[in-house]
Design goal:
This protein has 157 residues and is mainly alpha-helical. It is built from 5 helices and no strands. The protein has one domain (25-144).
């Protein structure tokens, strides 16, 4: 996921000609980027701690993770709403990814809002199941993968 985020966002950071908002980044986008990176690094750290059987540290760090997830969702929702209010995406990244034919920008915005909603629900349920490791790890991984929305949907043949 870290590599996917680098590949997704690096072009607009390295080549500012494709951006739809002037640099410097808005404080909201900067905060969202920092919290997103922190979440990715925390997830990697948590998975590593479990793999190394350091469950006590994993559990203590999980309290911080719960708070970080809340901040991530709030900043994510705020960024999407700001994007819609301005009439474009703040980074220029989303506009380069072709959506399904006939999907209006409003529908794409609603889709992004549902991404953050999915994330919030999966993390919340994952935290509720923290005492059942097999369920907890799957819910947290699904939250990390965007609720299963990574793979493009296509009609059945």
């Amino acid at each position: 996921m870290i590599l996917l985020n680098v590949v997704a966002f690096a072009p607009s950071l390295l080549n500012t000609l494709g951006r739809r908002v002037p640099l410097p980044l808005t404080p909201l986008v900067t905060a969202h980027a920092i919290v997103s990176l922190a979440w990715l690094l925390l997830f990697l750290t948590q998975a590593t701690l479990v793999a190394m059987s350091h469950l006590d540290i994993h559990r203590r760090l999980g309290v911080f993770g719960a708070g970080l997830a809340i901040v991530f969702v709030v900043l994510g929702f705020s960024s999407v709403v700001e994007q819609a209010r301005r009439g474009f995406d703040l980074s220029g990244d989303i506009s380069r990814v072709p959506g399904p034919p006939g999907v209006a920008p409003l529908a794409a915005t609603v889709g992004l809002l549902f991404f953050f909603f999915d994330f919030a629900v999966l993390v919340a349920v994952g935290l509720c199941y923290r005492h059942r490791p097999s369920v907890h790890k799957r819910l947290m991984t699904l939250a990390m993968l965007g609720g299963g929305r990574i793979a493009p949907r296509r009609p059945l043949d």
